[in-house]
Design brief:
Layout lengths: L2 H5 L8 H13 L10 H10 L5 H5 L2 E7 L5 E8 L2 E7 L16 H12 L4 E10 L3 H11 L7 E7 L20 H11 L7 H13 L16 H4 L5 H11 L9 E5 L13 E6 L19 E6 L1 H17 L7 E5 L7 E8 L6 H21 L2
Parallel strand pairs: 3-4, 4-5
Antiparallel strand pairs: 1-2, 2-3, 6-7, 7-8, 8-10, 9-10
Length: about 375
């Protein structure tokens, strides 16, 4: 039973955004009765303030819907001793474009206020967007990133998507690699379930289960299949195993789902940190009417970087043999969204049983190859 799904059964307009920001503010507040203390707050706050101390975390003041005079209400304002963290929450991509009569964008207005109100304190601002496929949100963020508050603002997503291929001009320091979903999953590892109140478990489980659906709720025109469409296909069990392991989900805006080599300080610049990609269509097409003719009904195809494949070839062959496959499933190809970028494509028939253990095994093999290439280039 998912509490958030229950509360949105009779949804009207965009009120779900309030539910998600309320759930977030509750879990982030160490003074609430969730039993988490400041552990969840720490996971988020350290992305903005790596040197934040325990006393500041434990005594944090979390204020939802903080009124910023006449410029608006910021979803979350967190005071951590001498540090201040503002968070603006977006669930819908279209809600990002909030411009005042004077022409100021919402993020600019909020950052201007924070820069004056907390000019003697270290403040940061996190723009929390549905997914890295949320192009309106990213466009709004880029406009602020180019301005006076560049060193103060960070982009973060509710759920991880493909690497930010379309976010040209953004630097690694502008983006928080971990998503809210990642933080929640990490949080579960810090506690024994029996030690937490049932209501807290219910809320965390509900968030982890519903957050991937935010990818599908971006109200932008999209022509590629989302999770709902893919789940009806004979290949779904294979696709789901890959998606579940990396907690990444398809978007109707892209033809592939990229899987990272690593997160945080371990991420690599090589191939934009993309270890490999899984195709959600059989080929690129330009019109939405082409969807039905390009669904992966018979096989699931993985795109590997040629150098990573070469460095991992022996392990990949062992993996394929364990699945009962031979060399005929491998061919040279191109990345669907990237023009003529060379790839090595592995095709897996719909009848091949692949579970999360198989996926983890392949990920390990490819990461070893990835690591070897990085070391050889040092």
């Amino acid at each position: 039973m998912n509490i958030l799904r229950i509360l949105t059964l009779n949804k009207h307009g965009d009120f779900e955004e309030v539910l998600f920001s309320s759930a977030l503010s509750y879990l982030l507040d160490p003074g609430q009765d969730h039993g988490l203390g400041s552990r969840f707050l720490e996971k988020l706050a350290r992305e903005a303030f790596p040197d934040i101390d325990r006393v500041s975390l434990n005594n944090a003041k979390v204020e939802p819907e903080r009124v910023l005079d006449r410029v608006g209400n910021i979803d979350l304002l967190i005071e951590l001793g001498e540090k201040v963290l503002g968070i603006e929450v977006k669930i819908w991509d279209r809600s990002a474009r909030n411009i005042s009569k004077s022409g100021e964008r919402q993020i600019e207005r909020y950052c201007s206020y924070l820069s004056q109100e907390f000019k003697d304190r270290d403040w940061k601002f996190i723009f929390l967007i549905p997914t890295t496929a949320s192009r309106i949100c990213i466009d709004e963020f880029k406009k602020v990133c180019d301005g006076d508050f560049k060193k103060r603002v960070k982009l973060m997503a509710w759920v991880s998507g493909d690497p930010l291929d379309d976010a040209k001009g953004l630097q690694q320091n502008d983006i928080i690699e971990k998503s809210i979903a990642d933080c929640l999953i990490d949080l579960e590892k810090d506690f024994k379930r029996v030690d937490l109140p049932l209501n807290t478990l219910w809320l965390i489980d509900s968030l982890i289960e519903i957050i991937p659906d935010l990818v599908e709720d971006i109200p932008e025109p999209g022509r590629f299949p989302n999770r709902e469409i893919l789940s009806q296909l004979p290949t779904w069990s294979i696709l789901k195993s890959f998606f579940d392991v990396s907690n990444r989900w398809p978007s109707s805006l892209t033809t592939t789902v990229g899987f990272p080599y690593a997160r945080g300080s371990e991420r690599a610049k090589l191939h934009n940190n993309s270890l490999y990609r899984i195709r959600t269509v059989t080929d690129y097409y330009t019109e939405a009417s082409g969807l039905d003719n390009h669904l992966p009904v018979e096989v699931v195809e993985l795109e590997l970087w040629p150098d990573v494949y070469e460095a991992s070839e022996e392990g990949i062959w062992d993996w394929l043999r364990e699945l009962g496959l031979n060399e005929q499933v491998i061919r040279k190809g191109f990345h669907l969204d990237g023009g003529k970028v060379d790839t090595v494509v592995i095709s897996i028939d719909k009848d091949i049983p692949i579970d999360e253990e198989n996926v983890n095994r392949l990920n390990h093999i490819l990461r070893e190859g990835f690591r070897k290439i990085i070391q050889d280039n040092i």
